[in-house]
Amino acid sequence: MIFTTPASDDDSTATVADPVVTVPAPLAADTALSHAVVGIGRFGCVHARKLLSLQGFHLRALVDCSPSARVASELAALPLLSSLDDMPRDIASATVATCDDAHAEVAMALMRRGCHVLVEKPLCIDRHEGALMIRTARQCGVTLGTGHIERFNPVFDESLLGRLRNAATNHRQSRSARPFMRFRRCSTRIATARDSVLDLMVHDLDLFAWLCAIPGEAPLELLALHVDAHGVRARVRLDALVAEFESGYGSLPAARLQLCDGHREQWLDLRGAASTTAAGGDDALARQYQGFRRAVLGEPSRIASGADGLAAVTRACQILRA
């Protein structure tokens, strides 16, 4: 079963409903981004706390439409707004940390205001919505990023990244049917096994593509799939590389990557590495925001683009539909 990521300007998707957009002013390199966080659940509050002290950002507002929305004491000084319409007009960027099925609508409304947007993963839950989000970003002249935070895991320094990409090239040339990488990601959350694909496995689908420099349009071939009460296991071929993915709930939290380079095998504990915080709070989330800011400035960055986020969602949905 092979499925190809749709082009971001696919004419089969709907056109943008509201043609009135605000084009953002150019941003000076030394200017802090006036920022808002939309969606103040558990993840939204984590983002807001990080942004409070993060250089290059000025957190100006929190937005949540729920009448029961509350924030912790350290965020209480910030205005808590119930609508995007109440946001100050000079907000330059925003984080979307709402429920997954609202990501597309909220992100597009923000982009039409001229905001650069970082959307928590998954970018969307429908690939056609994702294509429309990318088109909206292009029309509005803004940056659309996806929060695939594993790209900023400290374990993936430039040395390891270079070694992995060289190994991926060699593995492609060998045309080996053996898996080049194996991923396992688990959570204590209570949900169905299939829910873990867009919640957990989508992290690793993006990570595999990024580590191996696989283009977003590369088709995924699903070689094997097993679903039970505890999780989902999938073996895929992507850009001539075979990988195995496992995700599920109800067990101890885990995030591991096994590298199968020739006759050598190496396990990386991604969860342990990601929890490491350097002096000054320089953890994966802080690095992701600095990467997002560089992308806004037009500089090279590890941040997952909207197209990258859409590719991960498209591949996850193919696994879900099998």
Automatic annotation (TrEMBL):
| InterPro entries (UniProt xref) | Gfo/Idh/MocA-like_OxRdtase_N, Gfo/Idh/MocA_Oxidoreductases, NAD(P)-bd_dom_sf
MF terms from GO for this chain are: nucleotide binding
Q: Which residues form the Gfo/Idh/MocA-like oxidoreductase N-terminal domain?
A: 35-148
Q: Which domain of life is it from?
A: Bacteria
Stored PANTHER family? BILIVERDIN REDUCTASE A
Q: What is this protein called?
A: Gfo/Idh/MocA family oxidoreductase
**Species of provenance:** Variovorax gossypii
Record lineage: Bacteria, Pseudomonadati, Pseudomonadota, Betaproteobacteria, Burkholderiales
